[in-house]
Structure formats: structure tokens, C-alpha cells
Design a protein that fits this description.
Elements: H1 25-36, H2 42-56, E1 60-68, E2 71-74, H3 85-92, E3 99-100, E4 108-114, E5 122-128, H4 134-202, H5 205-217, E6 221-224, E7 230-234, H6 247-259, E8 264-266, E9 269-276, E10 279-287, H7 295-324, H8 329-335, H9 339-348, E11 357-364, H10 369-382, E12 386-392, E13 395-401, H11 406-417, E14 422-430, H12 436-451, E15 458-461, H13 474-498, H14 502-511, H15 516-523, H16 527-541, H17 548-564
Parallel strand pairs: 14-15
Antiparallel strand pairs: 1-2, 1-5, 3-4, 4-5, 6-7, 6-10, 8-9, 9-10, 11-13, 11-14, 12-13
Helix pairs in contact: 1-2, 1-4, 2-4, 4-5, 4-7, 5-7, 7-9, 10-11, 13-17, 14-15, 14-16, 14-17, 15-16
Length: about 575
């Protein structure tokens, strides 16, 4: 056992009080025995024995030891000149037997083993200036026997106290275990009712699941598709109109939910992601502005999410089966289809048709259609576009959400195919599926315009054609190019031969309304330099810029030139 060095020792009367005329050994020993059995612990008993040594014989108690976990532990001793650690080593070497030890300055010193029941549990080390008499030695031995008995008694009381404490702990633990068992039974009963309720609700589709969750939690429930659009609301307080989450914020919430298992707190909502085999089908949320939802509510939401994921997965498989029996969604969109059916089918393939889209037509002259479609898909993904991809009449068709990035798409596809011999046409904005056929026709016209221009490789947006949209078809385009050549041909040849910019100068001059100062500033040349160039244009072209009809034809020709040679 360990000995607490801070423990206060039991005070012992001075030796003079033990006898009336010097030491009275037997009486002192009897009084000591009585004191030792007064409910003291082992350390107190040992201190009392050490204090009594001097009253029984002309001896000194050098040290007292009790058995500890790692060997013999010396009792605290505040006397001056207490033996050093050498005494500890000598006692340890005795092997639990009595023995003579050495203490500096003392002619006789003995370590007496304290054995209450045949097992040594301590030592009492006694010394004297000279060897003591047999009678005195008898009293010291008797003191050791009484100390051993008292130590055994103290150890027994300590064991009883520890046993009683262990019983109290066991009783407490038993009560706690019973309480936990009751809680577990109640929790299992609750979970069973949730499983049974959700199993029944699953047969009633998403509405049944939402109603069952509200019944268990008492909180409003919202089920949304993967894009944040409301599918089902159960309970009071439905917003009208329902707020559309920002795309970035919604995607952050979805990705956060996928990284963590179980419901995720997002503001006033506790949301769980309905996903199956790595696919996200939607979300189910408890509307909890007071943050009252606890473990039970999270359990209900988590298991409802599993049921919802299975239900949504089933619905998607049905939609995919329907897709296999019909044309590709993109082809249906550009031909024309109903809005509701288009939204449902696009959701099945993981695309949100809500919001503005543009149709993009891609053609490549020297590459197989499959290779082009694959390169377009990979390039659009790399550019971060959200799109649907299809094919029609040997071309690759994209339905792109938001901005189409046509020039970046052309560059990316050209790099992927290691060929720039392709054209990209972009149709006008389509705000609903019903507008896709018009956007497709515009994309085709823009692509044809690019392919029949003097620079067929690149991207052209229908919105950029301006008045030239009325000419953006094959035969009319050729006539337009002939018109440009008729009015600007000499200037184009002169620019090519002399590396000048007369056509560009004339074009910007007309765009600035014929204002010398404005045109000179745009061209970043001096006003006199502009006058010289315009004079040179008159000489080379043979046209008088002061004639209204001539000015009109030249202006139209430069506008067409701007569109045809935009990449140049």
C-alpha cells in the first residue's frame, strides 16, 4: 500500500506520562495496544508504534515500513538525521525476514518484520547506542506483535470498507443498467414504430413519407429535387412563393451532406441527402427554426431519407425505362415536346431544365461523329457547363444551361480532336422547353453561316449576327459575300498586298457616324492621318464617300465584312 506523506500523525503522550517513576513497560504496552485498536488505519498504527519505542526501552525507532505496490514504502519521518536511502536498500534485501541492519552512529539496529497472519506487511526498525537487555528486547518484540495484530485489524477494516464500497457501486451500476435497459427498450419500441410507419408510408409515395415524418416529429417537412425545387411540403407554414435557392449555395449544401453521414444542420433546416449507389435523388428537410430537433427527430429523418432514396430511385428507373422507349431527350426538345414531360425526363438524367438555355450545334469536317460527340461532352464538362448532349443529322447538339461559352468550347474541342476544322453555332435564349426548336434552328443557321464564311473554323452566335440574320442561309450568304466583294474588293486586295487596314479604317469611320475626331480616337491615329487614309480609300476603291447611296452600300458592306471576318 502507499503511504501519504501529508497525512497528520496521531499524537502520542510523552513517555513520562506512561509511568509514574520512569518507564513502566507492561503498562505502557497495554495502553499502547488499546490505542492501536481504536479504529486507526495502517499508517497511524505504524506511527503510534514508532512513537512508543522510546517509552519501552532505551531505543530509537529509526524507520517504519509498509508494503506498497512496488516494494517497501517508508513512513514519513520529519526528524532531523533520519537514515538515508541505504536503509531502504538493506530492508529490501531482507526478503521479508527479520534481520540486523546498519545505521551510522548506532551500535545495534534491528529490522523486525510485522506479520499479522504469517505474511510480512511491514517493518519496524529499532536501534540503540548499545545492545539492549533481554527484558527490553522482549518488550520491543511484544510491541512488534501488537503492531502486527493492529495492522492486520486495520487492513481487515479497510478491506471491509472497500468491499462495502464495491457493493454500493455494484448496486448503483445495477440500477443504472436497469435504467439504461428501460431506455433501450423504449428506444427500440420507438424505432420499430418508425420503421413500420415508414414502410407503410413508402407505399404512398413521397407525400406519404413526408406526412409520416411530420407525424413523428411535429415539424414541417420539405422534399426537394436535386436542384432545390420543391416536390412535396407537409405541415403548416409553406412559403408562397417557394424560395429558389442560389445554385452555388444549394450545391454546397448537397456536397456537405454527401461528405457527412446522417442529417446536416443548415440554418433553420435539418437536411438529409437522399442518395443511392452514389446518385443524389433529392433532399428531405425538417423546418426547425427553433432548433428543437434532437436525437429522435434525427433518427426519423435519417430513416425517412433511406425510404425516400429508394422511392426516388424507383421513380427514376421508371423514367429511364420510358426514355428507352422514346427518342433521345435532346432530339425531342429540338423537335418540340411538352414542358412538364421535358422537366420530368431531364430530372431523370440529372439535368435541370428550369431557367434559360441555349442550343449549340457542333460540326467537324474531318472527324467521325462519335469522336466529335465524345470530345464535345468532355470539353463541355471541363468548362463547367451544365448540358444535355444529343445528335441530329450528323451533328452534335447541346442544350446548355446559362452561358454557352462558344469560343472556349470550340478551342477545347479542337484541342481534344487535334483539329480546328470545325464550326460551332449557338442559338438564341430558350426560357422553357417550348422555345428549344427555335433556338435549335437559330444555332443551325449560325453554324451554316460560319461554315460558308471565309473563316469556316470557329464559333458564331446567332445573337451576334445582327441584321445579317436575314442572310444567314447558304444561297443568300453567297450573295452577301459577293456584295461585299463588289464594294470592298479593291480595298481588301490593297490591304493584303500592302499590309494596311483601309477596310477596318472605313468600317470604324462609318461606325463612328462619320465623325473625324471620334474615329481618329478609336483608331488611335491623328486626325490628319485619318483624312489621308480616307483619301487613299477614295483613290483605291473609286467610290465617292460623299454620295449617300455609295455611303449606304459601303456601310452595309463593312457591316457584313465585320461578321464574316470577325475572327480575323
Amino acid at each position: 500500500m502507499s503511504v501519504d506523506p501529508t497525512k497528520q500523525r496521531q499524537s502520542l503522550p510523552a513517555p513520562a506520562t506512561w509511568g509514574t517513576e520512569g518507564p513502566n513497560g507492561l503498562r505502557d504496552l497495554i495502553l499502547l495496544s488499546i490505542a492501536m485498536f481504536e479504529g486507526r488505519d495502517e499508517e497511524d498504527v505504524l506511527h503510534l508504534a514508532m512513537a512508543a519505542v522510546a517509552s519501552l526501552a532505551p531505543c530509537t525507532a529509526e524507520a517504519g515500513y509498509l508494503r506498497g505496490e512496488d516494494g517497501w514504502v517508508r513512513a514519513p519521518d520529519e526528524r532531523d538525521g533520519a537514515p538515508g536511502t541505504d536503509l531502504d536498500d538493506q530492508v529490501a534485501a531482507l526478503g521479508a525476514e527479520d534481520g540486523i541492519v546498519r545505521v551510522p552512529g548506532r551500535n545495534w539496529c534491528e529490522a523486525i518484520a510485522l506479520r499479522p497472519a504469517g505474511t510480512t506487511i511491514g517493518y519496524l526498525v529499532v536501534s540503540a547506542a548499545t545492545r539492549i537487555s533481554d527484558e527490553e528486547h522482549f518488550l520491543i518484540r511484544a510491541l512488534a506483535q501488537q503492531t502486527s495484530a493492529a495492522l492486520g485489524n486495520a487492513a481487515g477494516r479497510r478491506a471491509e470498507r472497500e468491499h462495502a464500497s464495491a457493493l454500493r457501486r455494484a448496486h448503483h451500476d445495477r440500477g443504472k443498467a436497469i435504467a439504461q435497459l428501460r431506455e433501450s427498450v423504449a428506444e427500440l419500441e420507438f424505432q420499430k414504430s418508425v420503421h413500420e410507419g415508414l414502410s407503410q408510408a413508402s407505399a404512398e409515395s413521397e407525400e406519404g413519407i413526408a406526412d409520416m415524418v411530420r407525424a413523428f416529429t411535429g415539424l414541417p417537412v420539405a422534399i426537394e429535387d436535386p436542384f432545390g425545387n420543391l416536390r412535396v411540403w407537409s405541415g403548416p407554414g409553406r412559403p408562397d412563393p417557394y424560395p429558389e435557392p442560389g445554385l452555388v449555395r444549394h450545391e454546397q449544401e448537397v456536397h456537405s451532406g454527401m461528405r457527412r453521414a446522417g442529417p446536416v444542420r443548415a440554418g433553420s433546416r435539418l437536411t438529409c441527402i437522399a442518395q443511392h449507389r452514389g446518385k443524389v435523388f433529392g433532399t428531405i428537410s425538417l423546418i426547425d427554426p427553433g432548433r428543437t430537433a434532437g436525437a429522435h427527430e434525427e433518427f426519423v429523418l435519417d430513416h425517412a431519407c433511406v425510404a425516400l432514396a429508394l422511392e426516388m430511385s424507383h421513380q427514376r428507373r421508371l423514367a429511364e425505362t420510358e426514355l428507352r422507349l422514346r427518342r433521345e431527350l435532346v432530339e425531342d426538345l429540338i423537335i418540340g415536346t411538352d414542358d412538364a414531360g421535358a422537366y420530368a425526363r431531364s430530372e431523370a438524367v440529372g439535368h435541370d431544365l428550369h431557367g434559360p438555355h441555349r442550343v449549340v450545334v457542333v460540326q467537324w469536317e474531318d472527324k467521325p461523329t462519335d469522336a466529335v460527340a465524345d470530345a464535345v461532352g468532355r470539353s463541355a464538362t471541363g468548362l463547367g457547363l451544365k448540358f444535355l448532349l444529343g445528335r441530329r443529322s450528323g451533328t452534335t447538339v447541346l442544350a446548355v444551361q446559362g452561358a454557352a461559352a462558344p469560343h472556349a468550347l470550340h478551342e477545347a474541342v479542337a484541342e481534344a480532336l487535334d483539329s480546328g476544322a470545325g464550326s460551332v453555332g449557338i442559338g438564341g435564349r430558350a426560357d422553357s422547353p417550348a422555345a428549344f426548336p427555335r433556338s435549335y434552328e437559330e444555332a443551325v443557321r449560325a453554324s451554316e453561316f460560319r461554315r460558308h464564311s471565309s473563316t469556316p473554323e470557329g464559333a458564331t452566335a446567332y445573337d451576334e449576327l445582327g441584321f445579317y440574320r436575314i442572310l444567314a442561309s447558304g444561297e443568300d450568304q453567297r450573295k452577301a459575300e459577293e456584295f461585299v466583294r463588289e464594294w470592298l474588293g479593291p480595298l481588301q486586295d490593297y490591304d493584303a498586298e500592302h499590309h494596311t487596314d483601309l477596310v477596318r479604317t472605313l468600317s470604324l469611320y462609318f461606325d463612328c457616324g462619320g465623325n473625324y475626331d471620334t474615329a481618329a480616337a478609336v483608331l488611335m491615329i491623328h486626325r490628319s492621318t485619318l483624312r489621308y487614309r480616307l483619301g487613299r480609300i477614295r483613290e483605291v476603291s473609286g467610290h465617292d464617300l460623299s454620295e449617300p447611296d455609295t455611303r449606304l452600300n459601303l456601310h452595309v458592306a463593312t457591316r457584313i465584312w465585320q461578321v464574316v471576318d470577325a475572327s480575323a
